[in-house]
Design a protein that fits this description.
Radius of gyration: 29 Å
Order of helices and strands: HHHHHHHHHHHHHHHHHH
Shape: globular
Distance between the termini: 64 Å
Oligomer: single chain
Structural class: mainly alpha
Largest sheet: none
Length: 382
């Protein structure tokens, strides 16, 4: 403080403190006012970046009319959100409410195996015995832990009640992304200028990495998971599986966090073979197997570069995003966290490369280098 007073009088220090306080108040107030819109803006930017290649091709096919291409692409996105995505969401909400009600009432049960399983050739009797034992043991465990799981029911019910707000945010994000499509080059220039202030030597590399990461996660992880969940939901509905929407939502979550849909699909296939005739069971099984393998087929085609983000980062992004921003955060969380991870890793690697590369010697360094006795390059060389 004594050193500061040597350079600034007391009144200048007070003015500086007042200015910094007002600036902090302005930043905090701006954050409070814009916080509800952060998920909407973030998701709209993700959509604009992820669908930019489609927008460019569509604008070119329409004779260079970007506004018309943006309008068509926005209507298609709104149709997807309002149509199949809304159907999947409403079915999942209904399943979550039913599950939370059963959890609160302590009515969770695991069904016993049908008698038809015991008549299956080769594996039938053994599978029937294992299923019956698992059903009895799990039912006993659920009776013990049901009172402790009641708080979980309140959390699930809260998530289901916030789904309508999440749907509205989705619609606003899609509409805002439609306005951002024609201004992609200006947004890229703004991002380039911002990055130039932070990492002037790595601006282009970081900008390309950010765009590639957003497209890889949004198309190769989120997009494929949504498609898989929608197709699985259709198969579950056709099979008449109880809680089809909730199971389809579980398929989407498991696919996003890179575990895979087999955990849900295999029990459903077993249930189909128990409940349906041979022809119906065969067709539904073939359809669900194709759905389960869809991510292995589409990911190499959609993702131009391999995603190096660890699964734990995506998992934390899913959980943290959902807790912070509801249903919209389920999709934004893994994208933002993957972007932060990739940029941080690239920044660390760039720093290591600069530290390990030898500094070039200038002409002055060469001229000032000491000369050993007997050297043929020195001034006393003979």
């Amino acid at each position: 403080m004594k050193n500061l007073r040597q350079y600034w009088p007391g009144e200048d220090i007070i003015q500086l403190a007042v200015r910094l306080g007002l600036l902090a108040l302005l930043i905090y107030w701006t954050f409070v006012l814009t916080r509800p819109f952060v998920p909407i803006v973030a998701w709209s930017i993700v959509l604009a970046v992820a669908l930019n290649p489609v927008f460019v091709v569509l604008a070119r096919l329409l004779g260079g009319r970007p506004k018309l291409a943006a309008a068509i692409l926005t209507l298609i996105n709104l149709g997807i959100v309002i149509g199949p995505a809304a159907w999947l969401g409403l079915s999942a909400i209904e399943g979550v409410k039913q599950f939370s009600d059963d959890l609160s009432a302590g009515n969770l049960v695991v069904p016993s195996p049908p008698d038809a399983v015991n008549r299956w050739p080769v594996i039938g009797p053994q599978l029937f015995e294992y299923w019956n034992q698992a059903s009895s043991n799990i039912r006993a465990v659920l009776r013990e832990v049901a009172p402790h799981l009641k708080p979980l029911a309140a959390i699930l019910l809260g998530l289901a009640s916030n789904a309508s707000v999440g749907t509205l945010k989705f619609l606003l994000s899609v509409a805002l992304a439609g306005f951002l499509f024609p201004y992609g080059s200006q947004l890229a220039a703004a991002g380039r200028a911002f990055l130039h202030r932070i990492v002037p030597d790595q601006t282009e590399h970081f900008l390309d990495l950010a765009g590639a990461t957003i497209r890889a996660v949004s198309q190769g992880v989120i997009g494929i998971a949504i498609v898989q969940a929608l197709l699985a939901g259709i198969g579950f509905k056709l099979a008449g599986v109880p809680g089809a929407g909730l199971l389809a939502f579980a398929v989407m979550i498991l696919t996003i966090i890179q575990i895979g849909a087999a955990i849900v699909l295999l029990p459903v296939i077993v249930w189909i073979w128990v409940d349906k005739d041979f022809t119906t069971a065969t067709l539904l099984t073939l359809f669900l197997v194709i759905v389960g393998l869809l991510d292995n087929i589409l990911k190499p085609l959609v993702m131009g570069r391999g995603l190096t983000t660890p699964t734990i980062v995506i998992f934390i992004g899913v959980i943290g995003g959902t807790l912070a921003h509801g249903i919209v955060g389920l999709f934004i969380g893994p994208i933002i966290l993957s972007l932060a991870w990739e940029l941080t890793v690239a920044w660390i690697r760039a720093g290591r490369t600069e530290a390990s590369s030898p500094a070039p010697l200038s002409d002055v360094d060469l001229n000032q280098r000491p000369v050993r006795q007997g050297s043929l390059t020195g001034p006393h060389a003979k």
